[in-house]
Amino acid sequence: MAAVKVVDVRKIYRRDSQEIPVLDGLSLEVASGDFVGLMGPSGSGKTTLLNLIGGVDQPTSGQLIVGDTDISKLHGRALAKWRSRNIGFIFQLYNLIPVLTALQNVELPLLLVRMSGKERKERAMKALELVGLGDRLSHYPRQLSGGQEQRVAIARALVSDPEVLLADEPTGDLDKKSAAEILSLLEQLNKQFGKTIIMVTHDPHAAERAHRVLNLDKGVLSN
Amino acid sequence: MNLLSLVLVNLGRNKRRTILTLLSVTVALFLFCTLGGVLDTLQESIKFGSETRLVTRNAISLIFPLPLTYRGRLEAVPGVKQVAVQNWFGGRDPKDERNWYAQFGVDENFYSIYANDMEIVAASPPQTPMEVPAGIVPQLQTYFAEQNACVVGQKLLEKNGWKLGQTIYVAGTIYPGNWPFTIRAVYHAKKKSFGEETMFFHWKYLEQKGMHGQGQVGVYVLDLNQPERAADIARQVDALYENSAAATRTESEQAFQAGFVSMYGNIPFVLRVIGLAVVFAILLVAANTMMMAFRERTSEIGVLKTLGFEDGTIFRIVLAEAALITVGGGVAGALLAKWALESSGFNFGGFLPPMTVYWSTVLTGIAIAAVLGAVSGLIPAVRASRLKIVDALRRVE
Fold it and tell me: pTM for the whole thing?
């Protein structure tokens, strides 16, 4: 069964009167439990594709089906609600809230779910333990290394138990050792918990960890 | 953690900026409520007047006296129960010119007319028992036995560290000379508006020593036994002296007091304008602060939206931050103004009742602070809620 189905998707950005096509009739299918690496030169549309799959941006045309939902038909509140339950985002620069502790950062997505404070805290703690940061609960992002920050970001992406994890260059800002640890963690999440992962990367070593690698160039998949 | 704690944590992000903004709103609302307090005090002074009393003064101006000879005819007007005379003395403390308080020369009827407004709480005992005029409390025996005796308010006594039986001196300005007065009684104001920082002494003492027996009176106070006919009686009184050299103007004590307040001219208007100008200036400061806070967190707002926070939730979070700062500052400033003014006991040297800030002024201040929060937070809140995730996250990279 396909976890993600992209059908003839076009994305055109408009800057003043100029039209800039980013994705040009792209189609793609990612099976449930797959780990896909997405490579390509800068400006090829990798992040745009990830944003569309995550419901962060809207396609100009085409269909995007994630799970059993056609998200190209969702807007506003419905799309936000869907995102909070079905997608986990991992960013290159971690994007943690600096004034919140690791635990509070991980709790954030659960504020949108009907849940007691105690339960919220327990789930966030479990997620942090899963990424190996059970002893860093009350640390602020500035007190953590880059690798640890990215682990917190992964815990935040995991905490609401989404089917799909979207990672946009998750090792792009890390040293080799930390990058390898993060990639191992993603592999573990994929194998152990069956998470479908789509990872944008420029790093061929990182891409090797994926089950398959797709190359995107000028808005078209090339392999 | 919940959404409120998220708002609070955001406020603590730049503590110095939050505290400075909070303080600026506090100071603005303190000033606004202080100026409002001056207006409230003027309003309070109007309340002092009674509907059962009329005041007759010279029709030209309050500063011109009336002949003492009017008294008999005034007492004969139907509906008038009794008449008291009262003269503004306008003296100064010879040791400290800044220590200014009001002094009035009054006759014996004054004490019976104002028996419901003041209460004698301490008085010098008489050497030998003597009778006091009808309707006057017996504690004033010694006061009535001495020509230069005076009655002072409790607060005035405490403020100056005076004692019962002490002789004090007042330097006359309208009636020159160094005037000795012996404190023979102390009064407590039953009504706040009556004030406790005034000195009353024998009008006869003033008339003889200051006016050399010219028979001049500052104002007459008419106590009515038919208050419902007050307007008629006032017209009747003024008609008596319509064509005389010293025509009268008779009005209710409240109207008299209001007229007195109107001598301050456009000050109430100026105070209101200043108060609103201060609030408007702070509105700009608060709005600028909120915009700065929003700009600094654009990418974080993008992250929150990516996690599934709806536009409405983001709008409420940003607006709540602005509201917490301004309402917090507003409550602090307004309550501080009420506490500071009322505990100061300042009363414009006895011209007005002690400074007061009505609760309605405090609530108006807090409401203005809330509006300030809504207005200053509105633009950043709208922008944050409309922000596209893609645009917000792009700023990170």
Answer: 0.70
